[in-house]
Design goal:
Elements (H helix, E strand, L loop, with lengths): L1 E5 L6 E5 L4 E5 L2 H7 L4 E6 L4 E5 L3 E3 L9 E4 L6 E5 L6 E4 L14 E3 L23
Parallel strand pairs: 3-10
Antiparallel strand pairs: 1-2, 2-5, 3-4, 4-9, 6-7, 7-8, 8-9
Length: 134
């Protein structure tokens, strides 16, 4: 599968190739901060098939957390692009940044329901986990 995408203003672009490793949505508090309240809908892609093709993202990592993720986003428009989690062998691509979000389909699961808010929708018939399944 080949995915292409980028930020809202077009300053940063990427391509991701390979078999998706995971399609999910996360409702943890960290992710909902970054999305403005909704779930973080993502597709995990192999890191060897991911590259930025235009521009370079800005990065943010919380210094107060023991194992913080690195969030990559456009430094101009602020659009979230990816997350890179320590020990997780994938690039977590934000579905909203895809040129064709319909390629995502549906999430295979929802994670971190321990932080779910009443207004966050969980797809019926899909597995849901309080934390990341092991």
């Amino acid at each position: 599968m080949r995915l292409e995408g980028g930020c809202y203003c077009g300053a940063v672009r990427y391509a991701a190739e390979g078999d998706p490793m995971l399609k999910a949505q996360c409702v943890c508090r960290e992710c909902t901060h970054m999305t403005g309240g909704g779930p973080n809908v993502f597709i995990a892609m192999p890191p060897g098939g991911f590259e930025y093709t235009k521009g370079a993202p800005s990065q943010f990592k919380r210094p107060d957390l023991p194992n913080p993720v690195t969030r990559e986003f456009c430094g101009t428009c602020g659009a979230p692009l990816t997350t890179r989690a320590p020990g997780f062998p994938a690039v977590i691509v934000k579905v909203g940044s895809l040129d064709d979000p319909s390629l995502y389909g549906e999430p295979d699961m929802t994670i971190f329901t321990c932080d779910q808010q009443a207004f966050q929708y969980l797809p019926p018939g899909r597995p849901a986990f309080e934390r990341m399944p092991g």
